Amino acid sequence: MHESGPIYVGIDLGTTNSSAAVFDGEQVTPVRNATGTALTPSLVRIDGSGRISVGHRARKFLAHDPDSVRGEFKRLMGTRKGLTVASNTRRPEELAAELLRALRRDIETQVGVAPDRAVITVPALFELPQIAATREAARLAGFTEVEMLQEPVASALAAGFRADHSHGHWLVYDLGGGTFDVSLLAARDGFVDVVGHDGDNFLGGRDLDWALVQWACEQIEREHGVVLSRANSAHTPILGKLKRALEDAKIELSQVSEASVVCPDLIPHPDGARHLELQITQADLEAICEPVFARTVDVCQRLLAANRVRANEVERLVLVGGPAAMPALKKYIEKALGIELARGYDPMTLVARGAALFAASANLDARPKAPAPASAHRLWLRHPAVSADLKPHVVGRVMRADEQGAPTQIKLSRNDNNWESAWVSLNQEAGFIVGVELIARRSNIFTIAAKDEAGNPVVVDPPTLTIVQGMSLSDPPLSRRIGIALASDRVQVYFDRGEPLPARRTFRHHTVETVARGSDTCLLKIPIVQGEFDRAHLCRLVGTLEIPGTGLKTTVPAGSAVDVTLELDRGGNLTARALLADSDQVFDEVAHLLVPEASVDVLEATYQRSGNRLQELRKAAFRHHQDGDFRQRVETVARGLDGVGRDIEAARGGDDDAGLKARRMLLELDAQLEDLDAEIQWPALLEEAKWKLAWAAHWQQKYGSEHEQRLFNDASMAASKARERRDAVELERQVGLAYDLGFNAFVRDPQAWPSLFEQAAAAVDNARDLPAAHALVADGRDALAREDRRSLERVVRKLWNILPATHKQRRQAFESGLR
Amino acid sequence: MATPPPTPGLRKLVRNPFFILGLTPEASRAQIEREGQKLLSMLQVGFGEASHYHTPLGPQRRTAEMVRHAMAELRDPSRRLCHEVWAAYCPPPDDCAKPVGSHTPDQPDPWEGAFASFGWRMS
């Protein structure tokens, strides 16, 4: 039973196992479940009569009643997918809620308080719908307030919280059951900054398990002539049993050099089921797991390179997650990265411990709030709950300061009686700022005293505040770029990768077509996308803000201004708002926040298409005599496609997670194919760049200002460097810049706007709002006759706004209605 | 009243993180975090005093996003260096370059720039 003081709760909701920890301001303690262990298997069982059991209890049924048990739902969070458990269908977040409810009960048993508030961790590369689904699971489990925290940040906080005088870079390598995250952190003067992170949302211990299953299937085929396939749903229970037996062998191999895998009557055979007996050695395990380990090392090296940090500059390598306990993994990673492993951390509970520490920094005391005495005067307080600084500030304000007997002076006293502030008079806004002094590495509780105008003591609420002194964490950075897809298939970036959270940004866009008031067929779509690509179709659609014609006060003509605001909180929770500037109407309903479904047929078709593109590239590589590096990249894509083929096969056999993984991989391979295509197109791109630069140089020379010419020269030089590096993206960017400068100069020519007007007028029949377009053309003709250049320019710009992007571009940009 | 910055170049100057946080380029990492946290708290509580900051081009509006962004900028040593150069080259008027909300009875006004005057660098 917890007597007094705050309780901060952190929960690591894992793919394979989950855990919780509590922090009381001094100590972080893992929460034990009914079996006395800190790890609860992420399994939920629902029996025929709808009774639910979770964790170890559910695990007991895996062997003889596997249909009633469901695990690995974390990677399916945020999808539409209903999961069937026995005869019941549940959404992934509902199953996660059962798990969270069980953890909440365990916490109550341990500390005597059912927590209302908690921090729950999510993989750094979780997409927005997955974060929203986790939040929903917490709500269903009875939590009233939760914050999401990225898993690697939690691990780092736990690893560094009590580290004295730590200075330098750390790499936190977190290989969970279903996801891989790696973070680079810099510790300086008691502060931990997340310098950057990377990872793979679909790489984890589960992939190691399936690689082992694949190996075992090959042995079975060789010895018994029986082909077991993930594509065959009849083989699902057999493969499930095999996987569990191999998991046990994998754990055994942490201690011994050879293990046996024995499964009676496992192998189906016309002569009757046969026993399976296999021997697996440490060396076999290392060879089987090597490709997965190598992929994680690639991600680590990519992260270090992106941040220009050499391996020998990394002071600690902290391993987190179940697979981190494998000696084979430790050996491989230490050797491949050349960084010594940090010892003395429990890789299984580190994330939950960090989450509990973060709950303190977010001031999420899990205890239900005690009612304040009726006579108490309410204070609005703001201060860091965890601070590396020994002298932070407490800022406050007296609510209803005009009431009789309201406080006019405030004093803070530390509860060890060794420090107190002077009496501080409230300022004109009934506020105060007090600098307090903390005892290092302690939970510092301060009593708040108050006096009224006559000098009488006043009761205030809250009567105390707590600040924990320890390593504190800077604002977590965003792991993926977020923006709005435009009709031109481009992305307007709102938040770049690395942006400190929380963040809010507003941009003005314009509609590409008219949305008629009252029409139920007209809809303005604003797709929100996440990903690193400039082309919208290569990014993930994570939500759509929809403005229906039926909800409009007035018709919105093509070219109308729309101010879109996106806002992200510290846990990556997104809110979006669109303001129609003319009618002053606000829309903030994000129509769907789901990971798109991965239907097997669509995956199959995309897979075929990618395969065809690959063949074309192979031929083109031969025709254009591309170098060895190019051919190697083509073969890397080919290997990736092979893996996708296996995942699609597994998805056909009922493995939804494999389907999602295939969808993600196909998107990434598609981007790689585009890059390879761009390289094939390089000569054409160069030709176009030359033409554009020559055109822009001509007009710059004729009409450009001195400043513009300097900028033009800079852009031309940067384009030239990009050409030398064969950097297509940078070349396009710099040429675009130079072209814009050329255009600015071109429009100073007296014949420029008339010529641009004629071009736009020639395309007017393609406009979606024909009456408006024709009216503009008429206005333009008048302006032309009057030789009114300013009016003509206005007309041309308006025409540009209502001339559509191509149909293909819009389809690719998720039917975006904005430019 | 906030003065609108005239050009994108000058906008960069008035958005200098040191100006936003009301600190001098000599500020240590701890001072930056302390001041940033204090300003965020003041903005949340709604103190009018925190809603504007001083720049060589006159006062500008301050928001919580700007404070967070300024703190993030100054955490990166290479980006900080660039901001230091600009803040030192073109400081706001002397009487404006001091942290807001520092007039508490137990904290006499520090002499800003004292360490720099003695040739010390606080980092």
Kindly describe this structure.
- The complex is a heterodimer of chains A (819) and B (123).
- Chain A is of the alpha+beta class and 819 residues long.
- In chain A, the strands form nine sheets. In chain A, strands 1, 2, 3, 4, 10 and 11 form a six-stranded mixed β-sheet that branches. In chain A, strands 19, 21, 22, 24, 25 and 27 form a six-stranded mixed β-sheet that branches.
- In chain A, a hairpin with a 2-residue loop joins strand 8 (83-85) and strand 9 (88-90).
- Chain A is globular.
- With 123 residues, chain B is mostly helical.
- Chain B has helices at residues 8-14, 17-21, 29-45, 64-75, 77-89, 114-117; strands spanning 52-53, 60-61.
- In chain B, strand 1 (52-53) and strand 2 (60-61) form a beta hairpin.
- Chain B is globular.
- At the A-B interface, strand 20, strand 22 and strand 23 of A face helix 3 and helix 4 of B.
Topology:
The complex is a heterodimer of chains A (819) and B (123).
Chain A: E1 8-12, E2 17-23, E3 28-30, E4 40-41, E5 43-46, E6 52-54, H1 56-59, E7 69-71, E8 83-85, E9 88-90, H2 92-111, E10 117-122, H3 128-140, E11 145-150, H4 151-160, E12 168-175, E13 180-188, E14 191-200, H5 205-224, H6 236-252, E15 258-267, E16 274-281, H7 282-306, E17 314-320, H8 327-337, H9 350-361, E18 377-382, E19 386-387, E20 393-398, E21 409-414, E22 424-425, E23 431-435, E24 443-451, E25 457-458, E26 460-461, E27 464-469, E28 472-473, E29 482-485, E30 491-495, E31 503-510, E32 523-530, E33 540-548, E34 561-568, E35 574-580, E36 585-587, E37 590-592, H10 600-623, H11 628-652, H12 656-680, H13 682-703, H14 706-725, H15 728-746, H16 752-762, H17 770-786, H18 789-802, H19 807-812
Helix pairs in contact in A: 2-3, 4-9, 5-6, 5-7, 7-8, 10-11, 10-12, 11-12, 13-14, 13-15, 14-15, 16-18, 17-18
Chain B: H1 8-14, H2 17-21, H3 29-45, E1 52-53, E2 60-61, H4 64-75, H5 77-89, H6 114-117
Antiparallel strand pairs in B: 1-2
Helix pairs in contact in B: 3-4
